[in-house]
Design a protein that fits this description.
With 391 residues, the chain is of the alpha+beta class. It has 2 domains: 3-176, no CATH class; 189-215 and 253-390, Nucleotidyltransferase, domain 5. The protein has 10 helices and 14 strands. It has a 7-stranded antiparallel beta sheet with strand order 2-6-7-1-5-4-3. A 5-stranded mixed beta sheet has the order 10-9-8-11-12. It is globular, with a radius of gyration of 25 Å. The protein starts with a strand and ends with a helix. The relative contact order is 0.10.
């Protein structure tokens, strides 16, 4: 299977400057290639494809040896492929009748990743394998950058990406042939309901806490954003204030990911079959204000709920859970059950007495609302599995 490994880089001050210059030159290349496509179509009606643009890199590198010529040819090709992927996604959305979203120019701070498509071509992972205490990543034009490798890399390194997040630099290794780490087999099955009060509620009645990292950092974020709003555009103080805001958001993101990994690991270690509700998170967190023609209702309450859903990180958790279940050899099933009574199957909106309480109007069955939902999700998932086996 294919897996990614991410490690923190520890560049020197000169290497950090070189990394920033590398990202900036690739951003300019991306924007120039986009302008080329736009101009060719607007003035001549010609659609420029990816196959035509890499051929011009030779002349670009020759004309700018101290800029574009410093970097790996393959990484520049990967940047052009990135633009081609953006256009492919644009045309797919047009064909599907969705909002197209034409590819846009990348401003500073909106292009933070450079990719080398092959280990050994302009880059080298573990460039000093015999070093007794440290791991290094060699990048053309940058040098040997020290890596904080906190775990072992498995499989074969295929692509290497360097990403900037605030003032930090990371390397992401995409590896093939990563061996599965199967856990001991178990027949235990569980249904899980995702929520805001508790991140996960299981059909066994267990509640996994929602860490709410954004809510915990809300006061500091608000203060940092107010300080940013008081600064003048283009000033040094504004750059420092923006860096503080970015650092706080980065900490929230890492806390959310850490919580998702711990919750997913607890489920994968204890159950062989995990059933979850198939959620449409984008639809659930759509703008509460609506449009001019159809304004929203209870905007303040809906906005607060949307913020809580996004803070819980359901999408991040389900992605992590899917990866861990695949690696551990667990079955993961997504279902779309109706809100029914777990005891008799009666469906009625009035059964949900409150956010946490469920009491059936038909049979009188009472339970925690999320536990009741998790039991229904488990039943729907097992029925789906049995139907698939019988087919």
């Amino acid at each position: 299977m294919r897996r990614s490994f991410r490690f923190l880089l520890r560049p020197t001050s000169k290497q950090a400057v070189a990394l920033a210059a590398c990202v900036e030159d690739h951003r300019q290349l991306y924007n120039a290639a986009l302008e080329h496509r736009r101009t060719a179509y607007r003035k001549a009606g010609v659609s420029v494809r990816y196959g035509e643009q890499p051929g011009e890199l030779k002349h670009i590198r020759a004309d700018d040896p101290g800029g574009q010529g410093r970097w790996s040819f393959s990484s520049q090709q990967a940047t052009l492929r990135r633009l081609d992927t953006a256009f492919a996604a644009f045309f797919t959305r047009v064909c599907q009748g969705r909002t197209p979203g034409f590819p846009r120019f990348k401003g500073r701070g909106r292009f933070d990743t450079v990719t080398w498509p092959k280990d050994g071509d302009g880059c080298r992972w573990d460039s000093q394998p015999n070093h007794p205490t440290a791991t290094y990543l060699r990048l053309q034009g940058v040098g040997h950058v020290r890596v904080h490798r906190h775990r072992r890399v498995l499989g074969t390194v295929k692509t290497i990406s360097v990403r900037r997040e605030g003032s930090r630099w990371y390397v992401v290794l995409s590896c093939d042939d990563v061996p599965a780490q199967a856990l001991p087999a178990t027949d235990a099955a569980v249904g899980i309901d995702l929520g805001v009060a508790s991140l996960v509620t299981t059909s066994d009645g267990e509640h996994l806490a929602n860490p709410r990292p954004l809510a915990a950092s809300a006061a500091r974020l608000a203060a940092a954003q107010r300080a940013l709003a008081r600064t003048q555009r283009g000033s040094g103080r504004r750059r420092k204030a923006a860096a503080r805001v970015a650092a706080l958001h980065g900490k929230v993101r890492r806390q959310r990911l850490d919580g998702a990994h711990k919750a997913a690991l607890a489920l994968v270690a204890g159950y062989g079959v995990i059933v979850h509700e198939e959620l449409r998170i984008v639809n659930m967190t759509r703008s509460a204000s609506g449009t001019i023609d159809a304004p929203g209702r209870n905007v303040a309450a809906e906005s607060g709920l949307n913020r809580s859903i996004l803070d819980a990180g359901w999408g991040v958790f389900l992605t992590v859970l899917a990866d861990k279940a695949e690696s551990a050899g667990r079955a993961l099933i997504a279902v779309n059950p109706a809100g029914t009574c777990a005891a008799c199957g009666h469906v009625a909106k009035e059964n949900r007495v409150s956010q946490a309480a469920f009491r059936c109007r038909a049979c009188g069955h009472g339970a925690h609302a999320d536990v009741n939902a998790a039991i229904n999700i488990l039943r729907a998932g097992l029925a789906l599995r049995d139907a698939a086996r019988a087919a």
